[in-house]
Each structure stands twice: as C-alpha cells, then as structure tokens.
Hints:
Blueprint: H1 2-20, E1 47-52, H2 55-71, E2 79-85, H3 88-97, E3 107-113, H4 119-128, E4 131-137, H5 143-152, E5 156-161, H6 165-174, H7 176-184, E6 188-191, H8 194-204, E7 209-210, E8 231-238, H9 243-249, E9 259-263, H10 269-278, E10 282-285, E11 296-300, H11 306-311, E12 313-318, H12 332-336, E13 340-343, H13 351-359, E14 363-365, H14 381-415
Parallel strand pairs: 1-2, 1-4, 2-3, 4-5, 5-6, 6-7, 8-9, 8-12, 9-11, 10-11, 12-13, 13-14
Helix pairs in contact: 2-14, 4-5
Amino acid sequence: MVSRALLFLVRAAARLLEAVLSFTPLDARWGISIRARTRLFDDGRPALWLHAASLGELNGALRLVRAVDEALGESPLGMNLVLSLQTVAAYERARTEGPGEPPLRHFRIEPALLPFENPRRLAKLWRRNRVVLAVAYESELWPAVCQAARSSRVPLVWWSARLGPRAARRWERWAPGLFRAMARSCSAIRAAEVDDSARLARLTGRWARVCGDCKRLVGVAPEALRAERGCPLCALSLHLEELPVLLELLRAEGAPRRWILQMRRSAELRAARRLCRGAGWRVVPWRAGLVPADGEVALVEDFGKTREVALSCAAALVGGSLVPGPGVHNALEPLECGNLILTGPYWYLRSSEIRRLDEWNLRREIAAGDARWPECAVPPAESVLAAVDALSANQRAQAKRAARALRRFMDKKEQA
C-alpha cells in the first residue's frame, strides 16, 4: 500500500513538472523539455521507433540507419522512422541537420523528444504513428519504454547495448529484479562489447550476442586531410573531476601552451573557468576559426561543436579517461577529423577500439605524474584511413545482417 502511494505521488509530481515545464528546454544534458508532438506522419505507412539519448548516441544511430538503408538495396521498404531523443541539443541537431546527404531511400525521419517517464504518452506516440518495431540504441533502456512495449505489444530491441561496470554494480545492488524484468521485455538484445554481454549475463542469466558499436561506422572527412591545425591540443567531453589532473599534466615539459577545452556538461563551465584561471591560464570563449594565443585556453560554451573543434587541432584528448569512474568517451569522432588521440590510463570501456588505434600508432597515453608531455604531431593520412577502414568493416557486416532481419520482419508483418 505504501509503495503504491509513493508511486502515485511520483507520477503526480512528474505530471505537474511536465505541465509547468512543457515548453521550457532546461539543461540539455537532462532533457526535461516535453515538447513532443504525437502525430508525426500522416501517410499511413508503418514506422520504426529508434531511441538515442544524446548527441553521441544520435551520431551512432544515424550511422546505423544509413548503413541499413544502403544494405537494403533498391527494393523499396517504405518505412517511417520516429527518431526519439532525450536531450534538447540532440533534438535540435536532428531537426535542423537530419541524416545528412545523400537522402535516405527507405526511411522518412522525424525527430521527437522522449516523453518524460510516461509510458502512456509513449504508447500513444507509437499508436498514432503506426510503430511496428522499437529499437533502443546503446545504453538507454528505461522502465517506461519497456512498459510501453508490453502494453502496445510492439517488439523491443536493445541494440548495441552498453552496461558499464558501475551501472552493473548499481543495478545488481539496488534493483536486480527490475533490470531482469526490463530485459525480459526485449525481443532481442545485442551487446556492444563482449564485456557488456558478460555483465548482462550476470544480471539476466542469458548471454547477448555481440553486434559491436555503431559509432565505428566511421569515415574520414575530406576536410580532415587538408585542415589547417592552428592549435596543438583540444580536450573533448572532459569531466570536471578530470580537469585538475589535466591542468597538472600541462605543467610537464613539452606540454602545449595553448589549447581548447570542451566540458562534458554545461553546468560545469563556471567551475572550469575558475580552475583554469587558478592554474594561471587566460580563459577566452571559443568560436569557429579562433586560435588561442600562448597562455590561453579557449573554452567551448556551445554543445555540438566537437567536429569543428577537432578539425582545428592536431591532437585530441578524449574525456572520461583521466580518472577512474566516468569511462572513456568516443575516440572515433576525433579520429575521423584526423587527430592524434590522447587518453589517460582509464580506457577499459572501449578497449578494443583503443588497441586498434595502438596498432596504427594513433594514440598516446598520459597519466598523473608524467614528467614529459608526449610528442603530438598530426598523424599520417594513410594510417588514419587504414584504421578507419578496419574499424568500420565489422560494423558494416552487422548493418547488413540488421537490414536482412528488418526486411524479414516487415515481410512477416505484410503477410499477417
């Protein structure tokens, strides 16, 4: 009785928050804005629902969609695609830029913000747009999504599933039964890495096949091979707890005297300015084309500028790797921009990618206590192209398998 009352109060508070903030995009990382239309298509065609939480997952999801679109061949599939997002920054990127060029042949895409922990609204979104298959991409599997899938009888697939060590420990300690129930709601689970599959097996009792990370569907941008590198270093998606470690490392012999800083969260910008100034750096706002002077750090205040920042620098330090806990972020986006990759010692979440970068001598490692900064020249274009081809090969094969499975699924739907 008490638990039901608490659940009622939580849902009532969520609805009140939704009513008050329905047109207020709060901090993009939280994605609390509820600006969501329920009818996105009027053509009566079946739809695929694909959820990607933030900008990083959006990039991987769009690459997966394009690879599947190419693998489907000439025979038209004729599906709509509801691209569900959880942050306002990702929603704005999807709304303004879409999947890019060339246009997709088999899918018509419309973005929408994920209804805030509201399975009934999500089920309504699916029903009005004739969603026949739901796909949660990477690490976002929520109770509301699973509940909506059960009530709507829509098959749910968790693709490129990631379950880090910290998240696995929390689920195992606080809500193992809830996690098992969510896993049972999935018609299929495909893990991003073997380690993710092992952690999923420990929690659910069944191993998931490994499909890899769709962010590996990479290609070197043409401008990356001829970009002018005016700045020696950029730090991308850095967590606030990593910044003191980096500032200390920048005191080492041979360290760059100008650099660009992109924080992981907008709420950390003020603290980042204070820490950089306390370490003796002049902080200037970054803008496209800006090359900071000696003794300056250019602070990126807008999200979604990773590509522009990386193209202006020779080396890119990938956030999440300098301290234990956060987990290293995607190193392939700066690789596409032709950067030499820098990481700290904590890169276990993406070990297969990091080892592949090491094979082509495209990575340097830095750690607290290093007396000298590693030499960071722009890597040869041949090495970058070879690494990208090797990283993409397996993922393109997986995309072809996904395309065949989607074609079979739609054929069965038409026959039924």
